[in-house]
Amino acid sequence: MNSLPLTALLAAICLSGSAVAYRATADVPSVPLRNAAVPGLRMPVVGLGTWAYGFPGEKWNDTIGQTATMEFLKLGGRRIDGARSYGDQAGVGKGVKASGLDRSEIFLTSKLPCTGYNETLQFVDGILATLETTYVDLLLIHWPYSKYKKDTTDPNCKPNTAASAATCRQSVWRALEATFKAGKAKAIGVSNFEEKHLADIISMPDALIPAVNQVEFHPYWHEDGLVAFCQKHNITFNSYTPLSCPDWAPKTHHWPKKHGALDEDVVMAAATAHSKTPAQVLLRWAFQQDIVVNPRTYSTAHMAENLDIFNFELTSEEMKALSSIKPPTLNKVCPNPQKDP
Question: Catalytic: 86?
Fold first, then answer.
């Protein structure tokens, strides 16, 4: 792995004038993926999170997913993050098609549940069909453990209890390896995996090491030890909910701040000091820790802001202050995978 940290490497690229991957994203750098990734594959630093685009009955829906995908690509974004469980992939696929961009210029991520070997292979084919593509750039195991595998055909996932969690994870990973070798995914990785879950994969004989671990990460919830573990093993750390999910978490979690971490005094102070928005400060805080991010929005203005975080730098004092924000009592937005066997 390059000895330079991600931020220093990208600075060198920008200063040298060298082109980065996905030529339409000159202002949005990308990073090389290691381990279980095809040689030369790069992952744009800022992606578009699409959770809830496909949920019926919400203001998020498949049409909005298609429009958001198209707008993000039009602005120069090149990475779209989705999942089978989001119900959004038809809209995302249509947005990619309607963008007019060559498929090779767009980095698509999808995720699937941990339910069994044959089930995984079936999910992959379904994902590709729904996205209307022959491959995804990154395929992730969505969660390290699934309670919903009662109909699995995989003996490694039976009985449907915590006792089979590790063997089921390993079997599903083997299916991802097969998918990777078949060319249906350019890179494979995991999501919501803690160190103990990653160890199950890394310890397998001749196993490919995950290229990416996508995990919740924001000032209210940041597992610094997990970040260090991933970086030690050349696993790119990918943050979801990097803005602390300001559209609904403050209400459901009864946070004192109306917009969550965006309203914290140190965040707003840094935003004022750099003439940036609080969202840009939070994304930059993650970026300066060598973390790539998936902010979720359907607002074109917010998309543009999220892509514009590479022309300023937080001071060491600001970084420390942001990392030291006192979180509210219920500080994690999504379920805690530390509790998963």
Answer: yes
